[in-house]
Amino acid sequence: MELAQAQEIIIEMAAAGVSGISFTAGEPFIYFQDLLELVALCSRLKMYTRIVTNSYWAKSPEQALEHVLSLKQFGLCQLRLSYSRWHQQHVSRENVLNAARACKVAGISYFVSFVTDFSNEDDSYEQFLRDNILMFFPEPVIYAGRAESFGRDAIFTDYQDNRCAMNPYLTPDLTMYACCDAGSHFKTTDFFKLGSLKNESIKQLFEKSESCQLFNAIRSLGITTIASFAGFKARDIVTYRKCELCRQLFDSPEMLKKLKIAAEGELQQWTR
Ligand code: SF4
């Protein structure tokens, strides 16, 4: 995507009421000069900005500080530093440390997104963050895209609502999805695909997201409640991770058809 086009989209998003943007996957720092321009534009438009990065650019404390000070000058609000035993196969964990420390010096908000499958293989990775007093949050690995092939243990979660905020996600080819991350991997039904900015305006795509009763049920009732309505046994529901349960419900054409009809009435009345 060209810089001018990205700028136009951001202006259109601001006009549509978007108050924050996260620049994310692949690696936004590859286009660092463009990124600075976009952050500056968002800042002028009073939009909150976050960049998600793997810190490959923070090879030394000096390089890290140079980048972070530029971002601060252009108005960045927050850096989110991806970190995991998979990320760190390609990027030294010292880079993450350099980036986080540079944020502290520059006065930019940051946190380390510690992607984990909660196995004891991750203990030393977590300890590294604790030893260096870094702000971090564990993020469950989402088994979609490249992570689809990762081995995984069976789980038993709590019986929780699993409501989902569903932040829209715009890809470089201008396709917009109603939810971030896993939503672009529903290959059978493309349930979360809203359309393309090549054919429709941002307002039209947002309206599709906000007027879809089933999306609203995900936001308000939660995926667990929808699964219960759909007939999933409680003891099965607790064996799914959130996005996997979502896929069970919405990447099957038959189930999706049934739920779309129910979302117009019956599902809205479903309480426990
Ligand atoms: S739970 Fe469903 S809606 Fe939420 S992020 Fe996962 S796939 Fe998207």
Automatic annotation (TrEMBL):
InterPro entries to which the protein is assigned, alphabetical: Aldolase_TIM, Radical_SAM_PqqE_MftC-like, rSAM_sf
PANTHER family attached to this UniProt entry: RADICAL SAM DOMAIN PROTEIN (PTHR11228), TUNGSTEN-CONTAINING ALDEHYDE FERREDOXIN OXIDOREDUCTASE COFACTOR MODIFYING PROTEIN (PTHR11228:SF34)
UniProt name for this protein: Radical SAM superfamily enzyme, MoaA/NifB/PqqE/SkfB family
